[in-house]
Amino acid sequence: MTRALLVYSLTLLALLLAAWLSLLAFSEHPLMLSGLWRGDDMSALIVRDVRLPRMLACALVGVGLGMAGSLLQAVTRNALASPHVLGINQGAGLFVALSLGVLQRWQLPTLAMACAGATLSGALVMLLSGLHRGRASGVRLVLSGVALSSLLAAMTDGAVMLNDELGVSIVAFMAGSVDGMTWQQVAGLWPWVLGATLGALLLAHPLNLLQLGDEAAHALGLKTRTVSVLCALLVVVVAGAVVTYVGAIPFVCLIVPHTARALLGRQDYRLVLPLAGLLGGVLMLLSDALSRLVNYPFESPVGIVTALIGAPFFLYLTWKQRR
User: Fold this and answer.
1) Where are the beta strands (DSSP E) in 142-268?
2) For residue 94, what is the enclosing H or E element?
3) CA 104 to CA 236: how far, in whole Å?
């Protein structure tokens, strides 16, 4: 418990530092925290109406993705599972691109389309890998996800080619960006993330029982299929909401759960899930700050930064599992 308290304290400190960097660092205009309650000068307007909603969106996305990654790895009992690796993000992105670029005349709800795409791609990965029968090895699951991701990416490119006017915006959207976030978008995002977070925390104890194996969990009275369905539903909701508002952010779901388990030194999901959410917020906020530094003073998509961090981490995990 002492170790957990220390880890949580340091993580909260890192979260505050990352929030400060995301809010005030790397700007052409000098920004100060007092801009939150100051008058209507340029600095105050940038802090209140540009940086603050952007910072909150990053934190919300990080919390949601960290929780989603932990849920998916727990329910599949596979350390390589994440919505991005398994093509869930790409499926949501494809359906959003279709609703924006090809089917816009029907005015389909973007969030509903994203959730439908995430659900369909997740179901296809389960069928291709044999996960629905409990036969999916780590390599087979990843190969199925990579193959499906490539197919979905090609289909997204096709949707871009069908609509030249929206092509640039769709490509930028798929790269994952928090640039230009508004208070209205934050208001649309936070209920979904908060609801999924509360649902994930309620499933922490059942997830601990699930790690004992299906037979032991059944003997203890756990309805494993119900828990799996609820976890999958939460992952789909988070992936759909995040893709709808900020695009496809890669690898956060993969990095954060491993880091949380390594820091705690155990796999108690009552501790892992909240810590994964906090670490997801830290990673997203730091990535947002770095995305403004990469090509300063111009903006870069935050998804590029998370990909640069996450790709080597994914290769390391693959090599470790192979050994």
Assistant:
1) none
2) helix 88-101
3) 23
Q: Which CATH class is domain 61-322?
A: mainly alpha
Per-residue pLDDT tens over the stretch 311-323: 888 787 777 766 5
Helix 110-129 and helix 88-101, axial crossing angle in degrees, nearest 10: 140
Give ∠ CA 257-82-69 in degrees, rounded to 5: 35
Higher-pLDDT residue of 98 and 275 is 275
Q: How many Cβ atoms sit within 10 Å of the Cβ of residue 58?
A: 30
How far, in Å, CA of 235 to CA of 231, rounded?
6
CA 66 remoteness from chain centre: 6
Q: What whole-number distance in Å separates Cα of residue 186 and Cα of residue 60? A: 9
198-238 pLDDT, tens digit per residue, is 999 999 999 998 888 878 888 878 888 888 888 888 888 88
- The residue among 284, 296, 283, 286 whose CA lies nearest residue 27 is 296
Q: Quote the DSSP letter at residue 78.
A: -
